[in-house]
Amino acid sequence: MFDEKGQKYLDCINNVAHVGHSHPYVIxxxxxxxxxxxxxxRFLHDNLVQYAxxxxxTLPEKLSVCYxxxxxxxxxxxxxxxxxxxxxHQDVITLENAYHGHVxxxxxxxxxxxxxxxxxxxxxxxxxxxxxxxxxxxxxxDHPDPSSAYAEEVKKIIEEAQKNGRKIAAFIAExxxxxxxxxxxxxxxxxxxxxxxxxxxxxxxxxEVQVGFGRVGKHFWAxxxxxxxxxxxxxxxxxPIGNGHPMSCVVTTREIAESFGASxxxxxxxxxxxxxxxxxxxxxxEVIEKEDLQGNATRVGNYLLELLAEQKEKHPLVxxx
Length: 321
Ligand SMILES: Cc1ncc(COP(=O)(O)O)c(C=O)c1O
Fold this sequence. Notes:
The chain is an alpha/beta fold. It has 10 helices and 7 strands. Helices cover 38% and strands 12% of the residues. The structure holds pyridoxal-5'-phosphate (PLP). Pyridoxal-5'-phosphate (PLP) binds at residues 71-73, 76, 99-102, 174, 178-179, 207, 209-210, 238.
């Protein structure tokens, strides 16, 4: 990036320019498609199918149906609709400090936001589980099994809600809490939570709006840090997906998508999945692969961790990295 005086900067904080500002390959793909055609996504276009195929190839097989939308908020709102339609339940379990978007339905399930409105701002259908933070949270590194302990908290919430006649539609969490304080959940936590939530007739929504697309290095999706045996029911994506272009996506299982379709409400979205957005999405995926950006995230991430670990040794005020 350059400022108005031509001073050069490395942009370390912009969380959408995933493959670099103004990447020529992405610009070319967008320009080419804009010159040719952009249209309401009521009309079918090959880009949409090609992009869906390319995107789902990065995910476990079960996650095979894409809904294209235009922002992270729109993706999470649609995820809630899918979850609520699935078994007709309404309640949502969310994590402490979570943020999932700016629309009404998401402010309701974002403690980071609704807590600012005062003490009675939590809606009855919302249940807040402790953040699985093993550094500052309720169960810490010295606990023999923090993943089970945090998952038990969710189980207790479900039991309490059921006692009050309430029914759980979904558990939603970022695969790694970013807004909520850069919290990496202990391995095994999601598996156990998913088991309890599914037994209650709910679904597991993994919000990958900030942490997806290879950012965690070792894996393409942050939920994969939990292990191969964990597959969410719904994954939401945004920010880096279009390198700054406003687009996003919800991916789910065929079963959940079919139940949504069976509701009789046609799913329609004017801009979601338009040919230009899909061309951009495809180009971003191609750049991530060609330039080995996931490998780069691992290499640079490990390098930073090493240097910061040295600082931790020197400065007692550094508690955790
Ligand atoms: C984790 C997470 N989910 C959802 C959203 C909402 O995305 P958008 O701002 O694109 O609507 C954000 C935005 O900051 C986010 O950080």
